[in-house]
């Protein structure tokens, strides 16, 4: 590991438009399709009508000016834009949180991160490389030992990531708004501008009308790059609807449970709310369950808390502000402490937190609130079904198991195997089965 030169964020961020829509028969473009769709709510016709009777630009502009600016949500949630995106880990931690988007992202569980993949903002001095070295040394040793999930927790946020990302028009407007926030990394602004340029190119009338609105139609998304107050939930809360008992009795009375319909029926008859704590890396896993309602603590607050704790930690004490992997010793804690010390030093030298955050390791613990419904709890591909599988990251598996056990204590009707890994159905869909499915086959 030599003195590699870290690339600047602006050298790495690349937003490549892939496709957009809706368009119709390659004739009617997005602006006109959306305008026509609005008019067709009053006409007994279809889109072919507008091929024979095309609208001029003036009429389309009037429709967008009147309807889009008034806040008719479907006009900005219907258009979809696909991008191949490259950047740092910020790209994933921020970008793949939008609940109505869809994302296929780089996996640090499968691909080794090498020193040439390190990234820094322009305002982050190259001397910060020194704080990366101890982290990368431990990472490399753990990766070579085959404990990849543990290794990736010590990586800094400033490394290369990429993915295919889909956003609706309203999401892109929301990203533009977020980019103006002082807490948002500069990288988010670069991403926002590139996506907005493509949006404007493909649907200029819709884009400009929406930009002139004085209200946002955004549903919101969990965003760790913020300075907002986090409000934890003191104790797990839950709510059972009037039909809960009837639904559980009906579906569990059969020898073979109809899991999909059971989950669908239970979706609006059971809710569980809880504050969870896990590393940045594990939150990155949890947030992928975008139908779970989530709010997350500021990564800046979490980092400050972790640093203060490590400074006052006594010999033999286990830190709560960072995730310590099993088998990790004092060298691990010292390396993390060194990175957090560099974060504080950078701030003292006038570097903004949004730039300094790139040196912070993924093992810093975040608090985040989740609200799960019956689907997340019992569907084989809901939260427990996916995250208690033996193929899941060990930390998220432990978090999910602990939460399930607490739910079972509060709601015993869902014990006896109604929650748990997806193989509870008696079928393992994984390439290499761990064997747990045999337990469910016997039952």
Your description of this structure?
- Among the domains are: 14-85 and 162-211, 2-Layer Sandwich (Gyrase A, domain 2); 237-297 and 365-442, Gyrase A, domain 2 (2-Layer Sandwich).
- Helix content is 44%, strand content 14%.
- It contains 21 helices and ten strands.
- It has helices spanning 9-12, 30-40, 48-52, 57-70, 74-77, 89-95, 129-144, 148-151, 169-179, 186-202, 204-211, 244-252, 259-266, 280-286, 299-312, 330-348, 353-356, 374-378, 383-387, 394-410, 437-442, and strands at residues 7-8, 14-21, 80-88, 102-105, 119-120, 160-168, 237-240, 270-279, 293-296, 365-373.
- Helix 2 (30-40) packs across helix 4 and helix 12 packs antiparallel against helix 13.
- The longest helix is centred in the C-terminal third of the chain and has 19 residues, at 330-348.
- The chain is globular.
């Amino acid at each position: 590991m030599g003195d590699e030169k870290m690339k600047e964020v602006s050298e790495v961020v690349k937003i490549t438009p892939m496709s957009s829509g809706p368009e119709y028969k390659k004739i009617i473009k997005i602006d006109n399709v959306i305008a026509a769709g609005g008019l067709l709510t009053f006409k007994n016709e279809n889109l072919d009508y507008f091929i024979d009777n095309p609208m001029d630009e003036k009429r389309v502009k009037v429709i967008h000016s009147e309807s889009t600016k008034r806040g008719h949500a479907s006009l900005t949630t219907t258009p979809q834009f696909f991008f191949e995106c490259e950047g740092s880990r910020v790209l994933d931690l921020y970008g793949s949180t939008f609940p109505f988007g869809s994302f296929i992202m780089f996996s640090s569980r499968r691909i080794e991160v090498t020193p040439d993949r390190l990234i820094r903002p322009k305002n982050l001095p190259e001397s910060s490389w020194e704080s990366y070295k101890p982290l990368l040394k431990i990472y490399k040793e753990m990766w070579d030992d085959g404990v990849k999930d543990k290794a990736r927790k010590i990586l800094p946020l400033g490394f290369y990531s990429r993915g295919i990302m889909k956003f609706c028009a309203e999401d892109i407007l929301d990203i533009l708004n977020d980019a103006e926030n002082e807490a948002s990394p500069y990288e988010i602004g670069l991403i926002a501008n590139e996506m907005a340029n493509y949006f404007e190119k493909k649907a200029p009338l819709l884009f400009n009308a929406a930009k002139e609105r004085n209200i946002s139609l955004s549903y919101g998304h969990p965003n760790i790059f913020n300075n907002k107050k986090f409000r934890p939930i003191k104790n797990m809360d839950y709510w059972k609807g009037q039909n809960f008992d009837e639904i559980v009795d009906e579906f569990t009375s059969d020898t073979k449970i109809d899991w999909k319909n059971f989950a669908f029926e239970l979706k609006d008859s059971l809710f569980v709310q809880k504050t969870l704590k896990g590393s940045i890396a594990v939150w990155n896993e949890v947030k992928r369950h975008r139908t779970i309602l989530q709010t997350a603590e500021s990564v800046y607050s979490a980092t400050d808390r972790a640093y203060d704790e490590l400074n006052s930690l006594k010999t033999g004490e286990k830190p709560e502000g960072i995730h310590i992997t099993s088998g990790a010793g004092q060298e691990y804690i010292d390396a993390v402490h060194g990175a957090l010390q560099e974060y504080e030093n950078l701030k003292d030298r006038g570097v903004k937190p949004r730039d300094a955050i790139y040196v912070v390791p993924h093992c810093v613990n975040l608090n985040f609130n989740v609200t799960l419904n019956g689907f997340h709890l019992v569907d084989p591909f809901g939260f427990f079904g996916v995250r208690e599988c033996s193929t899941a990251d060990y930390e998220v598996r432990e978090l999910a198991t602990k939460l399930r056990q607490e739910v079972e204590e509060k709601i015993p009707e869902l014990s006896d195997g109604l929650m748990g890994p997806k193989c509870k159905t008696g079928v393992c869909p994984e390439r290499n089965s761990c064997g747990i499915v045999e337990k469910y086959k016997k039952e």
